[in-house]
DNA sequence: CTAAAAACATACTAGTTAGTATGTTTTTGT
DNA sequence: ACAAAAACATACTAACTAGTATGTTTTTAG
């Protein structure tokens, strides 16, 4: 039971890349089979149907990535304002997987699937809430340390930041140019400084 | 050439509603024919193909709506900060066409089509830039009137606000509840007040 | 080593898709 | 009133879709 896990992971990873580029609905199972060199029999051995694979991508690929790349940086840093800015900066400018023309995978999935498939909705809400909660917790810590004003609503700010991040990722698709990120980051920095 | 224009408009409107609810790719032409009671012959008389219809929806339905509901309120008001807040509040809370579970039509289209179809991209970028420019112009006016600080970058703020709006519309899909809008609006108001 | 289960392979199906071919009806200008 | 063009109707096609039926091969446990 080792090689089998490899095929499964291979399917998930390649499928995720395709879906990130083309969207879930427009990525056919045959597309996935062609790029993975896996046969239909193997695919349906590992997944009951396409949606089950989609949920597996969220839970087995996106969730761990979230934990390492989105959650951890917020928990370790001393200063939440700097941590949030550095994180968004990293995600927009430095991260090598995320592409400007394809937006945010979680936001994409949400737009396409939420409200049409409860399982997708739940899985996506799960990881999104995790991010928000972590960010809010960091802000609360900052308030306790006196780095952030007392009258700031932590969760409210976390939602506001997340919304902006999702929005700018979608927005940048139109111009297909990272330059809009720089403009956004400037205003984000200004906004974050008003929390002090 | 009067009834014909009616059929065309009927197709565009019903198709737009379907696309807003289900997405562009997953709304089939047969779906549109079924809800409009129009035949395939009529459809393909009016539109060369599905994409041409999609572009027509953007240019002939979304663009005018943008002008009346998104642009005008920003041009008439005396105070840009109030105008922006009132506009976003209206769009999120009061507007009767926009549904929490379906997000923002322009953002949806952008996510689904931009980077895959240049015509869609251009049409969407066109109306988005129009909104941004109008908002930025209102902010510039506010700067001249002394309602907004001198060091504020108008276009930067307009992009920031637009991103947040798109983001929260997508975000609210997950919870399928207008309550998240209230939290967002509170922070938006706080943010807007820092421009003073 | 061997039987059973796990993992994969191939061929097929029924439904859906955008789009076309070829008509008929309706509207329009004169 | 009438021909021409505009507007619409019907039947079809070829490609693609998710999923299944039925195999064969590989792995694993005893």
Automatic annotation (TrEMBL), chains A, B:
Entries under InterPro entries matching the protein: DNA-bd_HTH_TetR-type_CS, Homeodomain-like_sf, HTH_TetR, Tet_transcr_reg_TetR-rel_C_sf, TetR_C
Keyword Transcription: yes
Domain of life: Bacteria
Keywords attached to this entry: DNA-binding, Transcription, Transcription regulation
DNA-binding region: 28-47
Coiled coil stretches, renumbered: none
Domain HTH tetR-type: 5-65
Molecular function GO terms recorded: DNA binding
Record flagged with keyword Transcription regulation: yes
Protein name: TetR/AcrR family transcriptional regulator
